[in-house]
Amino acid sequence: MRRSRTSSRQQHIQTGPNLSETACKKPLITPGSPGEDGVNRAGTLKKPRSTCHTLTMMSEPAVVERPALEDVAEEEDVFAAEGSSCCQVVEKRVGCPQEEGEKQLTYPPPVPLAFRKQVSYRKAIAKSSLHQLPCEPSTSSLNRTDPEANIRSTADWTESAVYGDHIWFETNVSGDYCYVGEQHCIARALQKSVSRKKCAACKIVAHTICIEQLEKINFRCKPSFRESSSRNLREPIIVRHHWVHRRRQEGKCKQCGKGFQQKFTFHSKEIVAISCSWCKQAYHNKMSCFMLQQIEEPCPIGAHAALVVPPTWIIRVRRHQSSMKSSKKKKRTSFKRKSSKKGAEEGRLWKPFIIRPIPSPLMKPLLVFVNPKSGGNQGTKILQSLMWNLNPRQVFDLSQAGPKEGLELYRKVHNLRILACGGDGTVGWILSCLDELALNPQPPVAVLPLGTGNDLARTLNWGGGYTDEPLSKILSHVEDGTVVQLDRWSLRVEPNHTAGAEPDEQQNDKLPLDVFNNYFSLGFDAHVTLEFHESREANPEKFNSRFRNKMFYAGTAFSDFLMGSSKDLSKHIKVVCDGTDLTSKVQDLKLQCLVFLNIPRYCAGTTPWGNPSEHHDFEPQRHDDGYIEVIGFTMTSLATLQVGGHGERLSQCREVTLTTTKPLPVQVDGEPCRLAPSVIYISLRNQANMIQKTKRRTSIPHLNDQQHVPDRLRIRVSRISMADYEALHYDKDKLRQASIPVGLIVVPGDSDLETCREHIQRLQEDFCSLSPFKYLELQEEAAKPKTFSCQRLSPKWCFLDSTTADRFYRIDRAQEHLNYVSEISQEEIFILDPELVVMAAVGTSPSTMPDLVNPTSSPINSRQESSQKTAEIQQGKEMERLIECVKNKDVKKLQELHTKGTDLTSLDESGCSLLHHAVHTGCKEMVRFILDNAPSDLLDVTDHLNGETVLHQAAALCHRTICHYLVEAGASLMKTDMQGDTPKDKAEKAHDAELAAYLGNRQHYQMIQREDQETTV
């Protein structure tokens, strides 16, 4: 029937009839139908520029002919059956504007409708990834000549860059899910385990040997640039979605609002979702949720649209095009400055890529520099995550090249912001490059601290190091951060000819850096740093552990203290601050370390200047006042730094002249050397723009949508052990179940976490005054039992952010004053206690969960205990009625009882839930009703006799459909009963091989789900 309708009218499109909704609602997209080339922005067809597209029209009022769900699920296997001829046709049709002299492409033979149905989603999505921009690259740019060119881990900025090229990183994900599909998977054909790689930009996973097979299915990464063309000036610049098939997807469908769940099909690896790599929108892979017209819709880019550099801004310029244009126009001498150096000048001026920004007051384009060597393996992970959240071409790897190239490329971008991911040295490197390029205005720099130390990052409220805060949240802070100024100080060194020469010692005439942002010091601390630096250069293999490095530092400091190598420092220096000679004061105090400090933080977070508010001689320290603080240390004051002490305040000045009479160890922002006798001049160089992290609410209300902040918040506090956090931090529901209540606090609605910490500490003091063996329990519906003692919180506890969609995140204690309690809590706060010891539950009712209320304000009196017993008796009667309904398979009666308020979460004396009884009867309607109306906690409730969950029982009874219902609802497939059997083992013992295979497949999904092979939305 469809074949006859299709063949009734086929025509080649020469001119453009209007395709408005009244004339032709939805054209059928065939494997060769036009993407952006065939349909213009107004929704009308236009004459193709280089290819002849075929659009099949219906004789009746046009209706979309989209593939059925089962056809879409099989698209992985279609191309292998069709052969290489189809792929060749596709490659021809995906082409770009015709080059001069190129022959017109011929029409391909008609393609059967069944084939079109099966591949319409595949081809439409494949074409969408190539037709998102106003101009697509020529076909020559899509042809690879070097087999290694497609295995790249950074963006290619050369002329030979491939449009839609993936950026591959090693991955340790397991499973049989290579994106090319089973028909094209070489590893599957070889039946052996091979390495896999994951694309950082679109998050697909493929075997290393299968990467070239992506060409066969015509799948490319989200485009990060566009080609130059004169026609682009007359066309609107938009970015289209980059749709990717996903076999696994978290979150909910944007269309229907339901979660993404696997269909119940044995040995199936279905595509469950279609999501966009730019905006992260995701839809179910079915016609009711994902419409074909969405493929050509403009993409909103997502939550960080203000930070993302659109691919339409980044333009590749062909070398031969420039020469052709210059030859046709009037004489231009810009490319021929000197005839004798024609080639050199042209090579220097021509760049393969240029940035053509479109200024907008709402845009804050972000340029990111990542130092992968900082913070162990953190840098590499952050690099990949930023490429996923942003355009890969706005993220630069500093291990490949310095920041200068990226800064030069983006120097004309209006309202540019920079994110430096690394240590303070990385920030200083970027600031020095900004000085060299003399950008005006200078873009502000934010810091994502990696590694240890990070005093500048602490000063700007970015914390002392990256833990596991969501990068999306960090990007929001970068966008909303306040721009502040940072003083930068010049160091000019001249040799001190009056001092006696000491040729035997290794000494330098110059400092490692001629500018500092944090501090310049000499004496004890510089000597320890220099010894560490020299030892590491001599034996780098001995310094590959952070713990060993710290131990070496401690040992060197202790030996230097015993030897007193810096005790005579004051005898060999002369200090003049703003014309005032402080040498006599330095000698009187017998200082062994002298620090010229620009920021309040020093030595991994200490505050050596302290708070001089009670002294009228000095002002509080600022990083933007044009003054530098001069501080001296004795061995005693150095020792007290870590416990809140401060050094000897000597001066706040604008200029310093420091004279040394012997070689001394010095360090500039952590870079040490042994400096020969010199005269050092310190003066203000300039001020750099920096981004300071500020308090930010998760949702900022509009002017016409003001949200009321409550005067007081009543919040429940629960703590989590480190073992539970490490095992379950990706499973929010189970982590909530594993938490132990601490109590209730009442705080003002606009409180930050520092205020909450004070309330929690007071709550602990009140609670721990009780007997340590006293247990308090209250009823809470639909929760599991736990018993706990009043174990005191350890000093190292920290807050957890539980509001993100995917997992819990730790909050740095140094940033608690920047987070409102409303940002991380709705009604409950979770805290991580690394020293928490959880006690086993003893003698608790299976239907209760303890909720600790401050015993001083809410005691459990005898009246409450009496009412509790009455409620338990009433609950037992209700349970009997419910079990009777289930055994009789009376669904209507069960619905009536539920409507009257009967609790479906009750357990009988054997620990079996109502769901256990429903599974035992095998009534599918009953199971479906309970799953739809009861909390998901029932899925993993175990009986007292065998320790079996409902899925164990369903598998043992070979109830396939019920097993599917339970797995779809989220039942655990890794939970074992008292015999150590999983649900899969139960199915095997029941001799149901297909059910066991299905459960094994789903168990494998759960085991690797947290690695998320393809994407998380």
From TrEMBL:
Pfam families in the record: Ank_2 (PF12796), C1_1 (PF00130), DAGK_acc (PF00609), DAGK_cat (PF00781), DGKI (PF23578)
DAGKc domain location: 361-495
Pathways involved: Glycerolipid metabolism; Lipid metabolism; glycerolipid metabolism
Sample GO molecular function, one term: alkylglycerol kinase activity
Superkingdom in the source lineage: Eukaryota
Keyword annotations of the record: ANK repeat, ATP-binding, Cell membrane, Cell projection, Cytoplasm, Kinase, Lipid metabolism, Membrane, Metal-binding, Nucleotide-binding, Nucleus, Phosphoprotein, Repeat, Transferase, Zinc, Zinc-finger
A Gene Ontology cellular-component term: plasma membrane
Similarity field: Belongs to the eukaryotic diacylglycerol kinase family.
Entries under PANTHER family matching the protein: DIACYLGLYCEROL KINASE, DIACYLGLYCEROL KINASE ZETA
Protein name (Swiss-Prot/TrEMBL): Diacylglycerol kinase
